[in-house]
Amino acid sequence: ILPFLKRARLYPIIHFNGIKVDRLLITALAERWRKETHCFNFREGEATITLKDVAILTHLPMDGKPVCASDHPPEDRDGMLGWVHFIHSVLGVKVPVKGSVDATDRLPPIRKHQVSITWLTKYFRDHYESHPLTKESPEDEKTRYAHVYLIGMIGGVFFSKKSSNLISCGWLRIILGSWEEMREFSWASACLANIYHNLCNASLKSVREVGGAMFIVQFWAWEHMPWIASVQHPDRDWPIDHPLRGEAYGTR
């Protein structure tokens, strides 16, 4: 499926699956985030994540059109049935809706214009255990697998919703589109906007969880504050008496 990801300029995302996020670090940064300025308010001054930071850390394209998704079904049908028909036409799988015979789960895979990523990826995983994907597989099979991989990575990793495994149907309109259309988007800009949005929510007292690509925030912190990184680099280590090290950030 790698050629399809390269056509969409999304090949770099294969390196960001299964990254462990330091929750304590993200919590400490969220407490210093100010939604009025979109900046971290440190004792030494303000700092923020820029578009250039995201582009360098992820290698995602920052030029192109803005990523805008709409929950309105692309077909003439209204509501969830329109999305069920759209998903079936592209992926060849009929997603059960509430009240249908094959909707055996307590919560249906599709609800309120959102689709369960777990259900969709499990469906294809079970299918390809009996029909492995090879270089000789039909082109449409490879395309479907590439689309499902992007659904899992974009909906479950880069633009995840707190503890939820649901992806908005509006995202499916973009992910399940043509590869040529996908390569025209500025994915780095979308990541940055989503990070700002989730940090603003996380800075509220009533919020206990944070979604989005917090691993990018973690990489940014390690890059600009190397003394808190998991791996120390001697050539970038700060002196022990440096004003930006130690008590200012509560580190060693």
TrEMBL record:
GO biological process annotation, one example: meristem maintenance
Domain Aminotransferase-like plant mobile span(s) in chain numbering: 13-228
InterPro entries, alphabetized: AminoTfrase-like_pln_mobile, MAIN-like
Source taxon at top rank: Eukaryota
Name the UniProt record assigns to this protein: Aminotransferase-like plant mobile domain-containing protein
The organism of origin for this protein: Linum tenue
Organism ancestry: Eukaryota, Viridiplantae, Streptophyta, Embryophyta, Tracheophyta
